[in-house]
Amino acid sequence: MIEIPTKTTPTTDPAAQAAGAGKWIIVGLLWVAFFLNQADRQIFSVTLPLIQTDFGLTSAQMGLVATTFTLVFGLTVPFAGVAGDLIARYKIVALSLVIFSAGTLLTGLAASYLLLLLFRGVATGAGEAMYAPAANSLIGEQHVSTRGRALSIHQTANYSGVVLGSLMTGWIAETYGWRWSFAVFGIVGLIWAGVLYVVARRYARRPVVKQASPTRRAKVLPDALRAVWTSPLLLAQILGFSGLIFVLVGYLTWTPSLLYERFGMSLSQAGFFAVLYHHLLAAVGLLATGFLADRFIGRYPKVRLISMSASIVLFAPFLWLAGQAQTLWLVYAGLAGFGLFRGVYDANLFAAIFDAVEDRLRSTVTGIVVAVAYVTGAASPYIMGALKARYGLEGGFNMLAVVALGSGAIFLTVVLMNKVKVEGPPGHRI
User: Fold this and answer.
1) How far does Cα 402 stand from its chain's mean position?
2) Predicted model pTM
3) Domain boundaries in the chain?
4) 158, 303, 329, 367 - which has most CB atoms within 10 Å?
5) Rounded to the nearest 5 degrees, what angle is found at the Cα of 338, between the Cα atoms of 274 and 228?
6) What is the tens place of the pLDDT at every residue in 92-133?
């Protein structure tokens, strides 16, 4: 149940500070952490051709590295979700930064394919999995009337991290070698983990009214599973998010290679333009939708879920266009259209979960939703790599379009057939 803050006299209590400027300081700290999280995730895709040549690997083997990362991510995130409801969430975020940054640093030192799988697939995948449930729930507990906007601002770090991370990675790899790309981001991530831990503990303490008793803490996981299993709308969100992650992991892994091979771009150009137009348009869709959804959710409870499900259906044709086009500007148009509707979806993803789930379960439920999606999406890079030899990357993009269309259509149907109840007082704009 969402609790609505009331006006109180000024106080120096950390919980009260978080209700004011402190809640935006938390967003800022997490923005940088999420930027590093997403920049780190893109390093492998940008440097993939160099790593493949260095180790003498097949496309399927390279796809398996990304698949291992995604699978480990999906298997780890439920535990991270539970931890985020039992332990101070800022501590989980800081630990996430330490683990995935260390994994990234070690990836740059890998001397064999097995170590590449271990450091990139297992260590980095597990570390990054710890971030989303705790970080988004931390924002959700500090923001009520500004929840959609705060989560949308935080989500822009995803786009900025992917775009700028790709650009910086490509330049570092071409100038100093692919191993230095991993080293630089690994070191910076470890430094920011310390900064975040020191600053966030001043503002991120949970208000006393939200602390759960020992009995209720013990029931977090069963209660979260029950909340998901008994809600057709949460199950539909899992299906839609699974479709989105399947598409995104495949797109982020192989689009730089598409531009590199089909249009003869340099490594840095391919990595940068594979994500630039997509994420620019995604930011437009994200910020506009986050503001509008906050404004109208009290009057139209289905606004978040309809925009999410419809956006998955609408970006499917753009995926097909990006994979089939033989003219560069048409590829960019496809990626941009895909990005616009992806941003609409992202603006509502966590806010829609938090609208329907009480605070003590939010991190755990988020972990469950993310886990299923990433375990499902883990197969995408490997399948696209295996298809590449026979059908080219256009065959893989066709597959992504079909997955998006199917999952989005089912999600939209469930939303239209069910009533939506938003937690909070009647008429309150969350």
Assistant:
1) 21
2) 0.72
3) 14-206+217-417
4) 367
5) 115
6) 999 999 999 999 999 999 999 999 999 999 999 999 988 988
Distance separating alpha carbons of residues 386 and 398, to the nearest angstrom: 14
Residue 39: which residues within 8 A CB-CB, separation 6 or more? 161, 162, 164, 165, 166, 168, 169, 185
Interatomic CA distance for residues 338 and 333, integer angstroms: 8
How many Å apart are CA 426 and CA 430, to the nearest integer? 10
The string of pLDDT tens digits covering residues 297-311 is 667 777 888 889 999
How many Å from the N-terminal Cα to the C-terminal Cα in the chain? 12
Cα angle vertex 76, ends 73, 80, to 5°? 115
Q: Tell me how far CA of residue 149 lies from CA of 5, 253, 292, 336, 359, in angstroms.
A: 17, 29, 9, 22, 18
Which helix (H) or strand (E) element contains residue 416?
helix 379-417
Q: Which spans in 117-213 are helix H?
A: 125-129, 131-142, 147-176, 178-203
CATH topology of domain 14-206+217-417: Growth Hormone; Chain: A; (1.20.1250)
Main-chain dihedrals φ then ψ at residue 409, nearest 5 degrees: -65, -40
**Residue written as tokens 């070690």?**
106
